[in-house]
C-alpha cells in the first residue's frame, strides 16, 4: 500500500515537531505533505495537498480545530484529533474522528491509530475498485464476447449469457442461461483473469460466477448463493468478506 499522505495542524511549533518526529521514527507508513498553525492555513494546505489524514489540534487561537469542518465542503480525509484537553472527545467523534490522542502523545497509541487509518484506507480503496467494476457491469457499453475452444474450432459466446463456471481439473465447465453447458480446455484461473472486468467473481476454488445472475445469498459460515439457473453454490470462508462487500454495493 502507498504511504498515507498526511498533514499536521497545530499552533504550537514544539508540538508539531514532536508529532512529526514520532511519525517519522515510528510510523513509516505516514508521509507528511504539509503543516499548518491555524484553521485558515490548514484549509489552504488541504486544498493544495489533498491529504488522506489530518492530525488536528483542537485548542488553537482565533478558531478551534472544529471550525475546519465549516470551511471545507467536501471532507474526503480522515481526522485524528491531537489535544491536551479530554473534554473535546465527544465533539471530536461527532465529527467522525478516527481517533482522539491526548498530549503528551503515547507512541504506542499513535502507532495503533496510524495502523487503524491504514486499514480504513485499504478497505476504502477496495470498495472504490469494486464500485468501478459494478458500474462497468451495470452500464455496459456493449455486449462482450469471448472465444471458447472446441473440437470443431472456436465458438464465440456473449459473456452476459454465462451464468457460472466450475473447475474440473485442467478443464472448466461453463453453464449458460437456458441450461446449455460446455466444457473447455482452460483452467478456471484462466477464466477468472479473462472475465474479471466483466463482473465475474471467484467465490470458491471451484466456482466463478457472473454477478448479473446472482439471485440470493444465504448466510452461514461461508454461506451460499442461489443463481438464476437455481443452482446453489457454496461461498468459501476465505472469499466471504469480499463477496459480501460486492453484494452490498449491488443493492
Automatic annotation (TrEMBL):
The keyword Phosphoprotein applies. The modification 4-aspartylphosphate is found at residue 57. It comes from Chryseobacterium sediminis. This is Two-component system LytT family response regulator. Residues 146-249 form the HTH LytTR-type domain. InterPro entries: CheY-like_superfamily, LytR-like, LytTR_DNA-bd_dom, Sig_transdc_resp-reg_receiver. PANTHER family: STAGE 0 SPORULATION PROTEIN A HOMOLOG, TRANSCRIPTIONAL REGULATOR-RELATED. Keywords: Phosphoprotein. Gene3D superfamilies: 3.40.50.2300, LytTr DNA-binding domain (2.40.50.1020). Pfam families: LytTR, Response_reg. The keyword Phosphoprotein applies. Residues 5-118 form the Response regulatory domain.
Amino acid at each position: 500500500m502507498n504511504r498515507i499522505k498526511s498533514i499536521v495542524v497545530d499552533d504550537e511549533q514544539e508540538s508539531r515537531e514532536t508529532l512529526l518526529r514520532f511519525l517519522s521514527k515510528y510510523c513509516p507508513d505516514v508521509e507528511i505533505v504539509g503543516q499548518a498553525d491555524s484553521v485558515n492555513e490548514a484549509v489552504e494546505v488541504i486544498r493544495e495537498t489533498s491529504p488522506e489524514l489530518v492530525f488536528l489540534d483542537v485548542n488553537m487561537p482565533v478558531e478551534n480545530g472544529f471550525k475546519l469542518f465549516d470551511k471545507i465542503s467536501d471532507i474526503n480525509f480522515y481526522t485524528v484529533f491531537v489535544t491536551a484537553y479530554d473534554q473535546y472527545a465527544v465533539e471530536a467523534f461527532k465529527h467522525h474522528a478516527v481517533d482522539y490522542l491526548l498530549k503528551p502523545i503515547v507512541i504506542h497509541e499513535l502507532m495503533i491509530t496510524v495502523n487503524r487509518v491504514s486499514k480504513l484506507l485499504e478497505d476504502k480503496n477496495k470498495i472504490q475498485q469494486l464500485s468501478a467494476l459494478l458500474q462497468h457491469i451495470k452500464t455496459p457499453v456493449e455486449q462482450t464476447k469471448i472465444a471458447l475452444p472446441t473440437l470443431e474450432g472456436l465458438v464465440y459466446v456473449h459473456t452476459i449469457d454465462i451464468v457460472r463456471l466450475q473447475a474440473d481439473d485442467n478443464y472448466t465447465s461453463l453453464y449458460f442461461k437456458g441450461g446449455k453447458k460446455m466444457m473447455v480446455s482452460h483452467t478456471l484461473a484462466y477464466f477468472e483473469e479473462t472475465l474479471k472486468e466483466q463482473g465475474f467473481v471467484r467465490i470458491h476454488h471451484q466456482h466463478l460466477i457472473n454477478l448479473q445472475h446472482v439471485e440470493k445469498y444465504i448466510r452461514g459460515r461461508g454461506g451460499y448463493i442461489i443463481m438464476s439457473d437455481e443452482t446453489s453454490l457454496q461461498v468459501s470462508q476465505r472469499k466471504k468478506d469480499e463477496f459480501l462487500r460486492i453484494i452490498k454495493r449491488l443493492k
